[in-house]
Design a protein that fits this description.
alpha/beta; five-stranded mixed sheet; PyrdxlP-dep_Trfase_major; carbon-carbon lyase activity; Aspartate Aminotransferase, domain 2; 2 domains; 39% helix; 461 residues; PyrdxlP-dep_Trfase_small; Aspartate Aminotransferase, domain 1
Length: 461
């Protein structure tokens, strides 16, 4: 018989996790004001809130930590990471930052002004937050196929070129500081962008003289999907595919806590020396000196190794197989998810799952709370809470997609844990018709409210 697939690593250290009772979880979620971000980590059995900074580092990365150079200026760890950024992405100018939103803060401080428009593919929360904080507008140009969760388009992260051109035709180039492409596109369900689409975006950008920035948090997973789904790339290595991808970009922001496989850190890189000189001022102001930028030398060393490992096809096969293991179990159970499955998370279609809960009562958050109560599993809402209020009307924005995102940390859980997640969702799915009411907001911040919002259940009494 054929040998089954097995991960090409073994476990060297384990961390205990507490298996709570439902009574305990009911008390804890009430104390947390029904915001899963407010839970303590030891109140969670399987934590799928995010794959950001929650993965397990390799022995090579831990070894690299021990040789970190903690010099304030001119650290050898900085130059090691700078060389790796040039080798993999091709950018001459590089600034380390403490995470992805810091890279956005520094770059957008240089480029984004009030009244401008930033088109892209379903901007994620921090990206949109930094744009709107500067009184600019994020314009979603994602292809319509992304919003059909049953559709099997292989690259639902693609930008619709006609939508993009419409924005650029309607506004002078001075009003559009950049085009942002998120790889993979988190808000549309962890969906990849094709090489053909990246190439076409570059052509349009050149035509209109607009720079292109890649949000690169999951760049390697995007390359894996190009390799596995796009004709002509099956025989190309991940490194070769990444190299071509970044030929079409003028710069990149990156939360290294995802595909860098580290617990903290970020990258801002670009081709323009002028951008670099301006960004350096903000980096020193917000992050730290240009050769550490909010990162310890040991973390820069670990990140350099992580970039090597993530561009290995063997690593990516392990990673994506586990995501698809959970996703396919849910599909077999009849549970609606975004198809085809993405690379870092399974996105459960909350609208189709809890059809009796109205959009005004935060359907995806309702499902997330139900899963925590059922199985001690913490996911995250990617829906109306995350979409925030319209800056002008102050009304809730209701996105086309309401997801419960189950983001899987890298090299952290076994498939037995994925079985617990699946069983918990199946139990809720079997009683979904009994869930008709959701939640209402008690207190919220004026921007990026989902991190700190306080909720209460809506009762029929």
């Amino acid at each position: 018989m054929d040998l089954p697939f097995a991960e090409n690593y073994k476990i060297k250290m384990v961390e205990p996790i507490y298996r709570s009772t439902r009574e305990e979880r009911e008390n804890w979620i009430d104390q947390a004001h029904y915001n899963l971000f407010n839970l303590k980590s030891d109140q969670v059995f399987v934590d799928l809130l995010t794959d950001s900074g929650t993965g397990a580092m390799s022995d090579r990365q831990w070894a690299a930590l021990m040789t970190g150079d903690e010099s304030y200026a001119g650290s050898s760890s900085y130059f090691h990471l700078k060389e790796k950024v040039k080798e993999i992405f091709g950018f001459d100018y590089f600034l380390p930052v403490h995470q992805g939103r810091a890279a956005e803060n520094v770059l957008f401080s240089v480029l984004v002004k009030a009244g401008q428009l930033v088109p892209g593919n379903s901007h994620f929360d921090t990206t949109k937050g930094h744009i709107e904080f500067r009184k600019a507008t994020a314009v979603d140009c994602t292809i319509d196929e992304a919003f059909d969760t049953n559709g099997m388009h292989p690259f639902k992260g693609n930008i619709d070129i006609s939508k993009l051109k419409a924005v650029l035709n309607e506004h002078p180039k001075e009003q559009v500081p950049m085009i942002i492409v998120t790889l993979t596109c988190n808000s549309s369900g962890g969906q990849p962008v094709s090489m053909a689409n990246l190439r076409e975006i570059r052509q349009v950008a050149d035509q209109y003289q607009i720079p292109v920035i890649f949000d690169s948090a999951r760049f390697a997973e995007n390359a894996w999907f190009i390799q596995s789904r796009e004709p002509g790339y099956q025989d190309r290595s991940i490194r070769e595919i990444v190299s071509e991808m970044y030929q079409y970009a003028d710069g990149m922001t990156m939360s290294s806590k995802k595909d860098g496989i580290v617990n903290i850190g970020g990258i801002l890189a670009m081709r323009s020396k002028a951008w670099y000189e301006q960004a350096s001022v903000y980096n020193i102001l917000f992050e730290g000196f240009v050769t550490y930028g909010g990162m310890a030398g040991r973390d820069m060393n670990a990140l350099a190794v992580g970039l090597d490992e993530v561009t290995s096809g063997v690593y990516l096969e392990n990673r994506i197989r586990q995501v698809h293991y959970l996703g396919n179990k849910l599909i077999d159970m009849g549970i609606p998810v975004q198809k085809p499955l993405g690379g870092h998370a399974v996105f459960v279609d909350a609208k189709r799952f809890l059809s009796r809960v109205s959009k005004e009562e935060f359907v995806a958050q309702t499902l997330a709370i139900e899963l925590y109560l059922e199985a001690g599993v913490r996911g995250v809402e990617v829906g109306t809470l995350l979409a925030d209020r319209d800056p002008q009307t102050k009304e809730n924005r209701y996105p086309k997609l309401e997801f419960l995102r189950l983001a899987i940390p890298r090299r952290t859980y076994t498939n037995n844990h994925m079985d617990v997640v699946a069983a918990g969702l199946k139990n809720i799915f079997d009683r979904r018709d009994s869930i008709a009411r959701g939640f209402q907001i008690v207190e919220e911040a004026p921007i990026m409210r989902h991190f700190t919002v306080k909720l209460e259940p809506i009762n029929d009494q």
